[in-house]
Amino acid sequence: SQSQREPIAVIGTGYVGLVTAAGFAELGNEVWCVDIDASKIDLLNRGEIPIYEPGLAESIAANRERLHFSTELGPALEHARLLFVAVGTPPTYSGDADLSAVHAVVDAMPASDRHALVMKSTVPVGTGDSIKRAFATRGKDGFRYVSCPEFLKEGSALADFRHPDRVVVGDDGDWAGQAVVDLYAPLGAPLVRTDIRSAEMVKLASNAFLATKISFINEIANVCEETGADVEEVARGMGLDARIGEKFLRPGIGYGGSCFPKDVSALKLLAGNSGYHFQLLNAVIEVNELQKRRVIRKLQKHLGTLVGKRVALLGLAFKANTDDMREASSLVLASRLQGEGALVSAYDPLAETEARKLMTGVDFADSALGALEQADAVVLVTEWAEFKELDWKAAAERMAGTVVIDGRNHLDAGELAAAGFTYEGVGRGT
Ligand code: UGA
C-alpha cells in the first residue's frame, strides 16, 4: 500500500518541517523537502540533522530513501500536489507575526490547477483568505489552500506526530482538504474538518489557553507561598477533575519558547485589531513576566543585596530536552541578576551554544558542579533530569553559600535540606 501513498512536499526544514517530513516518510509517503538555506540542505543531504529532537535523526536515517532535500522548488512541484508550508513566522517588535517567509513561498508558486498550499506555520486568522486573494489577483486561483495547524511539542515532537490528540483541517471543501484528511487517516486521530479561519483560530486559541493555564497555576503558587499551602498538592487535587486535567499545571518561572509568548501576543493583537479587547490575555502576559522576576526577590530575601554575589543558573533552555533558547526565562533572569550586580555562572547540557549567542558576561561551565563553584546561590531554571542526580553533598562543598531556588519544583527538598541547603521551590510555603 506504500506505493499508493500520496507524495508530498514540505517547504521549510526547520523544527515543524523536518518532523512533519520524517513523520510522513514513516507512513510511507515520498517527501520532497525544500529550503532556501543551502547549508541546511547540504547538511541534511550528508545525513546530519540541524536541530536536536529525540528520535528525529534515527527516523530520518531509517526512511532516508523516501526523503529528498533540495533548495529547488521544481522537483517538489513536479512530484507532489500538496505543499506543506513550515517556514518561520517569528514575532516582530510589535508582537505581530512576521509573515515575510510565508509571502515568499506564496510568491514562488506558479499558476496551477493541481497544487495546494497546506499551511503548518502558525499564522494570524485571516491569513489563508488573504493568500487566496493574492492567488486570485495574480491569475493563480486554481491553487488550493488548506490550513492544517501543528500542535507538536519540542522534545516529544515525533511522538506527537505519531499520536496526535486531533488533526485539524481547514479548507474550502475541495480535493485538497480531502487529500490532507486522507494523508492523516492512518494515524487514526480525531479529525476536526472545518473552515480555514476556524482552523487558524484553533491553533492560536489552544496555545493561548495553555499559556493561561500556566499563568493561572503560577498565580495559585504565589498565593500558596503567602498562605502556607503546597501548590503541588493543590495541582494534584485540581488535576484529577477531568474538566481541569492534570497537564500544564506545573508552576515555575514562566513559560517560554518560540510559541506561547508569540502566539499569546499575536492573539491579543489580532483581537485588538478587530476591535475586541482581550482582557484575560493581558493578565496572562503580565503574570508571566512577573513570574520570572520573583526569583530575584527570593534570592534577595536570602542573600540581601546581590551586588558581588555569584549566582549559578542550572539549565538555560526554555524547557528540558531541547537546545532551544527562544524566549527562555533564563535570558531575562540572567540580565536581571547582572542588573542587580550579581555574577552569573551557568550550565546547560545542550543549549550552551545557543545561549552563548544571546547572553553576555555569563561564565559558562562544562558541568553542573563546575557552575556551582564558589556560588552563593543556585537557581534551577530548566528541569533537566541530570540535575536530580546531582551529588548535592559535593555541590555544597564547592559552593560559597547554601541557597537553592528551585524554579521548577524539580529537586528533592528533603535531600537538599539534608545536604545543608536552604531550599525554596515555587508555591510550597516558606
Ligand atoms: C507549545 C505547545 O504545547 C504545542 O502544542 C504547540 O504545537 C507549540 O507550542 C507550537 O505552537 O509550535 P512547546 O513550545 O514546544 O509547545 O513547549 P511546551 O511543552 O508547550 O512548553 C511551553 C512552555 O511552558 C515551556 O517554557 C514550559 O516550561 C512551560 N510550562 C509548560 C510550564 O511552565 N508549566 C507547565 O505545566 C507546562
TrEMBL record:
Pathway: Nucleotide-sugar biosynthesis; UDP-alpha-D-glucuronate biosynthesis; UDP-alpha-D-glucuronate from UDP-alpha-D-glucose: step 1/1
First-level EC class: oxidoreductase
EC number: 1.1.1.22
Record key words, sorted: NAD, Oxidoreductase
Signal peptide limits: none
Gene Ontology molecular function: any one: NAD binding
Catalytic residues, chain numbering: C259
GO annotation, biological process: polysaccharide biosynthetic process; UDP-glucuronate biosynthetic process
NCBIfam families recorded: NDP-sugDHase
Family statement drawn from the similarity comment of this UniProt entry: Belongs to the UDP-glucose/GDP-mannose dehydrogenase family.
Protein's UniProt name: UDP-glucose 6-dehydrogenase
Species the sequence originates in: Conexibacter arvalis
